[in-house]
Structure formats: structure tokens, C-alpha cells
Amino acid sequence: MLVYGDGNLNFEVLEGAEQLDEILIEAKKDDNIKTAVVGVTTIDMAGIKNIPVVLGERDILKIATTMPGVKTAGEGASGFNVRGGRTDQNLILLDNAVIYSPSHFLGFFSALNPFTTGSLDIYKASIPAEYGGRLSSVFDIKTKDGNLTKFSGEGSIGPVTANLSLETPIVKEKSSLILGGRATYSGWILRSLDDENLKNSEASFYDGIVKYKHKLNINNTIQTSIYYSNDKFSITSDSLYRYNNQLASLKWDHEFNEKNKAEVILVNSQYKYNIDYEGNSNRNFDFGYKINETQLKLNFDYFYSKKHKFKYGLSSKLYNVNPGTIEPSDLNSDVEYESLDKEKGLESAIYIADLFEITDRLLLDIGLRYSFYASLGPATQNIYQDGLPRNPSTIIGQETYGNNAVVKTYGGPEIRTSFRYFLTPSFSLKGSYNNTIQYIHLLSNNTTEAPIDTWKLSDLNTKPQRAQQISLGLYKNLDASNIELSLEGYYKKMKDILDYKIGADLILNENLEQELLQGQGKAYGIEFLLKKKKGKLNGWLGYSYSRSFVKLDSPLDEERVNNGDYFPANYDKPHDFTTVLNYKLTHRFSFSANFTYQTGRPITFPIGKYVIANEEQVVYSDRNQYRIPDYYRLDLGLNIEGNHKLQKLAHSFWNISVFNVLGRNNPYSVFFVNDDGKIQAYQTSIFTVPIPTITYNFKF
Prior knowledge:
five-stranded mixed sheet, Maltoporin, Chain A
């Protein structure tokens, strides 16, 4: 429009409104196909509330075991077996600090508060170069940040436990505090029972966590976390068991400029347990064990260009282990005080990694880590004659080392490399190669990790464990990335993994190396996952076929098992099928189901008998030649959301679930005893009947 000369021109503006469809922004939507990481599992914290679990306790680590490649020895088992690895080969981190026993009450409950946990990433293959010290996996657990704008909270009340978390800003938009605590009232339940044995039993646990985060300015942020858990139990027993975890972490994030960032991390972890024994004889005692570690890490990010993104850093960790102390618990006890020499070790590492985008289709993640370990004094180490079994008669000398003197060193390079290649925009091929070194070992005669197991450092007579793993996978997204498909295969070789001689004595043994065997291991498998993230029907279906074998070969007969051939590991379960489904009827009502099937784990059976001096003796099969019956279980749940009114004090959520709906008597183990001269077989099971629970959750 053109206007010439003076005058008035009037415009009329009409107001109109147009309703737009909902816009949903999803972070990391296509990470499963875009990144170069192979074998990573991320647990959705928001979705786990609908999954039925035992005793109604929301459990992030139990959910992890429904994913392909992550297994346990059975119900109530502590520890995880990841891609054919032992339970001690998992690095479990809570806010960068190691948590040695991440479970309560012998594995029935997780020691992690679901209301304060922000994320869980499990690395089964492409372990980033910044992590080290374990062979099989990293469980990287992060506590969520507190609310920066208003006071809020979340809690639950179940049949056995109660849970509460609170969040509050300290300085609005700058700093926040989150506190979480859980406790059980199982002790009160036991005291109210009629059974006299159970009435006099104890079973209790609690845990608490505090996290504070403060944004100092645009370039600097600090955060600190403190965590503590404690367990105490004595079920129809003359022994009271106590164990606890204690963690503290401090992290400082600094941004030098747009291309350079750094973080400084200082953490301390401690795990200890005690056994208080009170019997009818004069053998009352207190036994204690403790491990403590302190670590300092420096991590740097350098965004060189769009093609190259570098990560590099260094770390150092000091271990202090008290292997065991026993002392009389009263004046009438005949037990003598005894304490094993403490162990000390220093584990350090330096690493560099480059995320190299060669083309739009091909992405490389190339990393190199060099780790170095030194066993430190004070220590006294036995020297054994070469070519003979380790026993008291083959000791030819001893070496004594002063405080902080170097006893033995180990180390080597660790390659961490992986790639991603886009076959189509929604279909990718990935592969990886890792080699890892582990300088600390779990000592256990059990099938799985237990609270009273102990950890041993590598030294003059105990080598570190080593592993190599190759992985290859296909990843496909469908329905605008709502459906994820993946198929992964892997092969892993291990050496110098720890095992034990038959009848090994692992507690308060000054010459522990005489009971140990170090052998080889191999594991391989294929994993399939189908996951639907949204819609009325959502959930996942996972299947894995995997094998894990151990080889204990030696020129010496007493150090050779199964003629030196490979045999199945205690946790070898070839077939593992799990499906977790949620169906949303309305905005308030939904159903959930969880079905699990697993091959029975290996076991050694008696296969014959003979009589010597009128006593029946047993001939056993080769180690782990047979299996216990297969495992399967179905759980069902009904979830009821409160109404969705905005103006209300708190929003509620009810979960009504039945664990083991079919009442399946799944065997955990089979053992044999000599009963009046006859060998009898017995089966132990954890949950043999359906277990209904009701849990009330609230959020404000």
C-alpha cells in the first residue's frame, strides 16, 4: 500500500485464537540408535512404579534384572551376574562413590531410594574410558537434583517399609536440597507373631541420603551427597548380623569456556559388617570386617570441533581393608582375640577418549585407559616353592614390608573402542571391543554375593583379574521412535578369576592364598529386546541366550577341577525370558504384569556311594554337571491413580499387586545331608505361595 501526502489511514485489527495440538519434547529420544555405545541399559525412573514387585517395594535394581544380560542367582539373591561375569565384577556407583552392598535384608530389597534416584545407566559392553576397576559392568546411579523453586515431596507406605523424600530450594533458582529416608517395621511385625522363635528374631534396616547442589555462578557448580544404610537381622538364630554402607561425595563442575569443561570429584566409601554370636557354650564372640576407599578424579571435556569431542582425565584410589577381627563378647567366653593384618593398595589411572564423527553415518568412540596398581605395606607375604601346591610345607620364606612400601605392582593398557554406522536413518549397526583389569576380588563360598563376604586386594600371591569382550549389535526404531528393537551378541574371555579349593576356609585365614585357585573363564550370548515406550499398552520383552564357563587347570592334581576342562559357572543360565507389560484402561486405572522364565542354575549332585568302616561315603559328579529345576514366575498388579485436580494437598497412587500369582515353588538351591546314615536331598525356596501387597504412594 502506498500513501501520498498528509491524511489519516485507519486499520482494524481483529483478535483470533487457534488451538494447537500438544507439543511433547523428548530428550535423548533416539540415543539407542545414534550413539556409539553398545550394551547400555537405561532405567526409566518414572515408569517403574507400575511394575509389581515383592512386598510392594519399588526397586530400581530389581527392574534392572528384567533386562537382557543382567541376572541374579535366584530370588532373594544379592549381587548381579552381567554377561557371564561374577558378582564382584560390577562397579556400582552412587553419585560417583562405590556402594559395596546395594541391597537390604540378604537381597530382598534394594538399598537405593526410588524417590531420590534420578537415573540408572548400566554399561555391559562399551564401558567409557573414565571408568575402571571392574571386568563386566558399570551401574552408574545418580541422585536427582532438588526442586529449585518450591518445597515438594514424595512418599509411600507399604506392608513392610515406609519411605519419604523432601525437596526444597535453599536459594531460589540457585541451590537446592533433597533428603530421602526409608525404614522397615519388620521387627515390630516379628515381635507380634505367636511363633516363639520368630518372636525373638530381629530384622530391620534403614537408609538415608542427602544431596545439596549450588550454582555459584554461570561457570561453577558444586554438589555434595551423603548416604548411609544399616541392616540388622537374626532369624531363629543365635547370631546377630549387622552391615552398613557409608558414602560421601563432593563434585565441582567448572566451565573454562565454550569448548573446555572440567569436573573434580572426591569420594569416600566404606562397608563393614559384624557378627555377634551368643550360643549355649562358652564360645560367644564378636567378629568384624571393614573396607574403606578414598578416590580423587579429574575429568575434562574438550569440544575441539564438530568432528572431535575429547574426554580425558586421571584418577587415584586408596584402599584400606581390615580382613577380620574376632574377640570374646563376654568374660566367660573361651574365644581368643585375633586380628588379621590389614591390606592396603593404591589404584591409579589416566585416560583419553575421542568421539570422532567421520561421516554423517559413521561415528567412532576411541578410548585408551592405562591403569596402575601397587600393593602396599605394612605386610608379610609368604614365598612358595615353584612347581608345588601352596600349603604350609611348601613355604620357603617370607618377605616383610614396611608402611607404604611397595609389595607388588600390576598394570596395563585398557582399550575402550566402539563404532556406530547408520544403515538407514532409523537403523544402525554398532560394535565394540573392551579389555578391563580388576585389582580387587570378592571371597565367597556362596553362589552369589552375601553381606558377610569379604574383599581381598591383589598382592604378591594373588594376581588381578583380566577380561576382553567384543560385541556387535543391530538397533532399529519404529513408530516415530516409540518402539525400540535391538539384537546384540557378545563374546568375553577372562583370566585369573578367583575360585577355591573344596572345603576352603575363607574367614580369619592368615594364609588365604593356600585356599585360592585362579583360572580362566569365557562367556558368550545373544540378547533381544523389544520395547514400547508409549500408548495404552507399553512395556518390554527381553530374551537372552547366554553361557558362562570356568576352567581351573593346573599341572597339580589338587588345583585341577573337572580334569582341567571348562565347566558351567554357578550362575550359568542359558535361557532367560522376561516380559513387563502395562495396560492403561483410563487416566486413573491401569494393569501391569511381569513374567519371568529362566533355566535352572548348575549344581553338583551325588552320583554314587560306598561304605568304609561302616560309614556311608558319597561320590559326587563333576562340578556343576547337573541343574536345579527351571524357574518361572508371574506377577500381576492393579494401579489406581488419584484424581487429577490441580488444587489439592497431595496426589496419591495405589498399587495392589500379587507376587508369584501361580504359587510356583521355585527352588533356590538343592543340598544333600547325611541323615542317619542315608544321603537325603533337600530343596530351599524363598517364595512358595502368592504374596499380595497394597502400597499407598503420595506426592506433593
